[in-house]
Amino acid sequence: MINTLLGLTVDTETMRPHLAGTTGGLSGPAIRPVAVRCVYQVYAAMRAGAVRQVPILGMGGITSGRDALEFVLAGASGVALGTVLFNDPGAPLRVLDELESALAARDFTSLQQAIGRAHPTN
Ligand SMILES: Cc1cc2nc3c(=O)[nH]c(=O)nc-3n(C[C@H](O)[C@H](O)[C@H](O)COP(=O)(O)O)c2cc1C
């Protein structure tokens, strides 16, 4: 979770949709709170036994280790980067470094300890 969110913008000069396909996928930092919310809710549903437990891969607007940590605390076992790579191809290594520092700064000795920590039962 998650894929892009469907968006649409209108060209105010032509007064028609900007995109040839009318709608298009919105990605990047703007969608991160929606993605984190999805991870949080699905993790909670798994913990409640409502759905089968599988690892969650969190994605959507991650540009820093802090962003990645947010997904992990919400319940993701791993994260992925997309849009940030267009501007910063080195982002995966940077984000990994930042995530390791962010975990250590919070006295986590493993990623595992941080997974789902945002939930009241953890
Ligand atoms: C140019 C582009 C192409 C994408 N193509 C696919 C795709 O083929 N299949 C898919 O499941 N998601 C695709 N996505 C969605 C991404 O995998 C990702 O879920 C989404 O962009 C949110 O992450 P981000 O904000 O880090 O980019 C694409 C996203 C972008 C920006």
UniProtKB/TrEMBL annotation:
Record flagged with keyword Ligase: no
Instruction: Please give the Gene Ontology molecular function terms for this protein.
Output: dihydroorotate dehydrogenase activity
Q: Which GO terms describe its cellular component?
A: cytoplasm
User: Which cofactors go with this protein?
Assistant: FMN
Does this entry carry the keyword Nucleotidyltransferase? no
Please provide the Gene Ontology terms (biological process) for this protein. 'de novo' pyrimidine nucleobase biosynthetic process; 'de novo' UMP biosynthetic process
Q: Which InterPro entries match?
A: Aldolase_TIM (IPR013785), DHO_dehydrogenase (IPR050074), Dihydroorotate_DH_cat (IPR005720), Dihydroorotate_DH_CS (IPR001295)
Q: Which UniProt keywords apply?
A: Flavoprotein, FMN, Oxidoreductase, Pyrimidine biosynthesis
Its name, as the record gives it, is Dihydroorotate dehydrogenase (NAD+) catalytic subunit
